[in-house]
Design goal:
This protein has 56 residues and is mainly α. It has one domain. The protein has three helices and two strands. The protein has a two-stranded parallel ribbon with strand order 1-2. Strand 1, helix 3 and strand 2 form a beta-alpha-beta unit. The longest helix has 10 residues. The protein starts with a helix and ends with a strand.
Amino acid sequence: LAITAIARRKKLLTDDILVALADHMWYILDISGSNVTDVGLVKVAAICTNLRAVDI
């Protein structure tokens, strides 16, 4: 999750990067200000079945 936060802050977070880093243990996700699309978010939701909160 830390690598994802760094990528987001540096404006490097995309669908492909988020999907590559996704972990089924995540329960919160902050993708605000990123380049993640609806398609990427759907893919991550399928991987991260424990997600309870997403900040978009």
